């Protein structure tokens, strides 16, 4: 058995920030999960209803691995990424750093992981791997998934090699701090500004505040859009609240990030942004509850109310990001 020593599995909420926390703590940088999410400019929004999709998807963050790239660039980290179509090479790419005493991040499809009780394909799942033996791989996943867990090496290989939406070609990565690390506190304002500017100027109408406005128009028709409303709507609501989002479709994480920032940066615009995102987090939880109720009852009135709240949310988040973009 090969195990990297000193790995701490914390009960965090979101898969990518969980993995980043493991890798960075091993390097000597210990940041809270909200701070990792915020410094990586992780907040966003997407309304996704592509061809062949059984039901629309509401996403509340940037695409998988973009947060990691953002964080590495912002803090001057050395991010070493490997991808390959070869199963043999894919294993070598993770075994070598672990043998050398360094944990590795993996992007994979969680469907094939033994410890996942909910068998849903999601190719943007990210975990930290810190050991292996002849049969199993030792991983750190989110708190709800068990924290420090094991999965079979065969299952891990299938998860890493899966193809489909948001998957990567056996992607693995390591992180190293620079010889002279930057003061991460000085990167807060650029991270907030970059996130705000991207949110306010989305390239297509499905993203950012425009995407929330679109959701406000589309959600009232979800009973007709759903193949099985009693299944599809509660599942959509569950993903918003408990699908690794930290609650309120990542708005609770961003609210907590901004609160932490207000203790480090004395700026009224940050305090205003925090206040507005605290309001938004409550409303996103309300939207999820209304969507679930609509599926369980078949009453479209709940979706009409959800649409109205979403239109309010588009306004609130647009106002918050406009304030934060002026930091």
UniProtKB/TrEMBL annotation:
Any Pfam family matching the protein: DUF4872
InterPro entries associated with the record: BtrH_N, DUF4872
Stretches assigned to the DUF4872 domain: 155-324
Residue ranges annotated for the Butirosin biosynthesis protein H N-terminal domain, each copy included: 14-142
Domain of life: Bacteria
Protein's name in the database: BtrH N-terminal domain-containing protein
Annotated organism of origin: Planomonospora alba
């Amino acid at each position: 058995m090969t195990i990297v020593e000193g790995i701490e599995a914390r009960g965090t909420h979101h898969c990518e920030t969980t993995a980043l926390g493991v890798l960075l703590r091993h390097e000597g940088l210990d940041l809270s999960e909200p701070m990792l999410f915020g410094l990586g400019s992780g907040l966003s929004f997407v309304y996704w209803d592509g061809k062949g999709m059984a039901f629309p998807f509401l996403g509340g963050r940037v695409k998988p691995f973009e947060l990691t790239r953002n964080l590495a660039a912002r803090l001057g980290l050395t991010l070493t990424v490997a991808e390959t179509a070869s199963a043999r090479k894919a294993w070598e790419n993770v075994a070598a750093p672990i043998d050398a005493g360094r944990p590795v991040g993996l992007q994979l499809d969680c469907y094939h992981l033994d410890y996942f009780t909910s068998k849903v394909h999601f190719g943007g799942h990210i975990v930290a791997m810190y050991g292996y033996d002849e049969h199993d791989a030792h991983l750190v996943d989110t708190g709800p998934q068990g924290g420090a867990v094991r999965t079979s090496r065969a299952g891990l290989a299938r998860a890493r090699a899966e193809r489909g939406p948001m998957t990567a070609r056996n992607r693995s990565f390591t992180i190293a701090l620079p010889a002279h690390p930057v003061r991460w506190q000085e990167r807060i304002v650029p991270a907030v500004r970059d996130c705000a500017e991207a949110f306010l100027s989305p390239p297509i109408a499905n993203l950012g505040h425009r995407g929330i406005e679109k959701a406000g128009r589309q959600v009232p028709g979800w009973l007709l859009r759903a193949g099985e409303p009693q299944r599809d709507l509660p599942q959509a609501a569950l993903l918003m609240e408990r699908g690794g989002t930290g609650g309120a479709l990542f708005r609770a994480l961003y609210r907590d990030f901004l609160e932490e920032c207000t203790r480090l940066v004395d700026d009224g615009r940050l305090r205003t942004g925090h206040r507005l995102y605290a309001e938004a987090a409550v409303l996103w939880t309300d939207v999820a509850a209304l969507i679930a109720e609509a599926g369980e009852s078949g009453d479209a009135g709940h979706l009409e109310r959800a649409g109205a709240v979403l239109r309010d949310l588009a306004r609130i988040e647009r106002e918050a990001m406009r304030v934060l973009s002026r930091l």
